[in-house]
Q: What sequence folds into this?
């Protein structure tokens, strides 16, 4: 099935919806200002994190498991309210989910009883679009992710990579200014994961939408990002903001370049130190 996706992808139009391109060019400015998230009972998930993400940037949050990456992203999504500090998108304070932020999870969370088209159309329908318009929007984004041949299929008929493509299409169907992705390719095999990364970069390159991408995979972070923001072991602090000076568009051959290898080594050194610190802290408890 994945080979069929590649055939579909080769037929995609060079650009996506003009509305999304226009918005992405001027919107999607994320400001995380001294955010702390304390869940109580000794669980300090994020500690005094500050981050300024410009419109159109692709930023990866990288760190050891349990360091608070997803929690920090969820403050931007509006799912988690900071204990202190604030989050804003385009100058608007964030305290709840909104259509200006699209979310893609590790698990696709598709409605199994709805077709691919109806899953993607769900957001526009909830936003007040008419049924015909919602389905037109859905078909546009389904085509964009290379699944036009599967528009009437159901999730149970799709591979894992296809389901995640539907998840991306669904997140984009509300024309968000920011796309939030929480380890969306973590459950995929290596070949499908690499293909999904390239497809995501194609979509991002066409729209220029701001992307915040959570991962614990160093190679993934370096390949995708403009900036790799490294978080410490729990409690999560931002300990490094590494600019990735690699040309775009990116292809898999770039992983052998000196710039790629040097950036990966820098990330690996930081992650190793934090993982060892976390292990030592756990050993003393």
A:
């Amino acid at each position: 099935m994945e080979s069929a996706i590649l055939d579909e992808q080769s037929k995609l139009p060079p650009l996506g919806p003009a509305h999304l391109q226009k918005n992405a060019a001027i919107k999607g400015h994320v400001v995380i200002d001294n955010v702390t998230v304390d869940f109580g009972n000794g669980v300090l998930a994020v500690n005094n994190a500050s981050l300024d993400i410009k419109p159109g940037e692709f930023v990866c949050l990288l760190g050891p498991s349990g360091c608070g990456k997803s929690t920090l992203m969820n403050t931007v999504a509006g799912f988690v309210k900071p204990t202190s500090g604030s989050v804003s998108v385009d100058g608007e304070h964030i305290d709840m989910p909104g259509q200006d932020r699209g979310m893609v999870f590790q698990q696709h969370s598709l409605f199994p009883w709805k077709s691919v088209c109806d899953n993607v159309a769900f957001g526009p329908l909830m936003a007040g679009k008419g049924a015909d318009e919602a389905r037109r929007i859905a078909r546009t984004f389904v085509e964009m992710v290379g699944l036009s041949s599967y528009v009437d299929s159901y999730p149970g008929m799709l591979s894992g990579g296809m389901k995640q493509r539907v998840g991306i299409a669904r997140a984009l169907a509300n024309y968000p200014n920011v796309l939030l992705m929480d380890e969306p390719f973590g459950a995929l095999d290596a070949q499908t994961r690499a293909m999904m990364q390239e497809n995501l970069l194609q979509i991002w390159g066409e729209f220029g939408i701001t992307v915040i991408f959570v991962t614990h995979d160093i190679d993934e972070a370096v390949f995708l990002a403009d900036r790799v923001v490294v978080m410490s072991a729990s409690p999560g602090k931002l300990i490094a903001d590494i600019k990735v000076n690699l040309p775009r568009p990116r292809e898999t051959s770039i992983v052998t370049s000196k710039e790629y290898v040097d950036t990966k080594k820098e990330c690996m050194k930081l992650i190793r130190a934090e993982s060892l610190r976390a292990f030592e802290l756990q050993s003393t408890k």
User: Anything to note?
Assistant: DSSP finds nine helices and ten strands in the chain.
